[in-house]
Amino acid sequence: MPGYQADNTEEKNMATRLISREPKDPQELYKEALENASAFNSRLRYERRLRIPFIDAQTGIAMNDCHLWISKLERRPGQTPHYIYSYPAKRWRKKKRPPPTERSSEVKAAEAEEQISENMDTMETEGVPPEESEADHTRKLSQ
């Protein structure tokens, strides 16, 4: 059973590698966990930014990008001995948007003129003089 012994030695090597690992300082473990969580959140934010805006199925609200996660660049050393990191305080403020305005009468008049000129152009291409209406033109064609 030489194959079995080879497998057994590989298992022993793996076990010795796991056992021989030196225990880390709890603060180092905490820092590593924070950095891993930060990297995960950054990756998640980036992926979500590519899919935004999306509509939440339960609420029907369109979700937008947010700045809940703070970048590593803003990270500072802790201000007291029991804090590892600290971040600058930022107050959240809702973006101010102007109230919706009704369309002015000038815009409506301009659109009406455009529509009239388009109708006139189509009538001219069909050979209808501008003085005649479409109803008069259809009556003449039907006779």
From TrEMBL:
Annotated segments matching region Disordered: 90-143
Basic and acidic residues biased stretches: 99-111
Record-linked InterPro entries: DPF1-3_N
Residue ranges of domain DPF1-3 N-terminal in the record: 28-97
Record's compositionally biased regions (Acidic residues): 112-134
Domain of life: Eukaryota
Name the UniProt record assigns to this protein: Zinc finger protein ubi-d4
Organism placement in taxonomy: Eukaryota, Metazoa, Cnidaria, Anthozoa, Hexacorallia
The encoding gene: DPF2_2
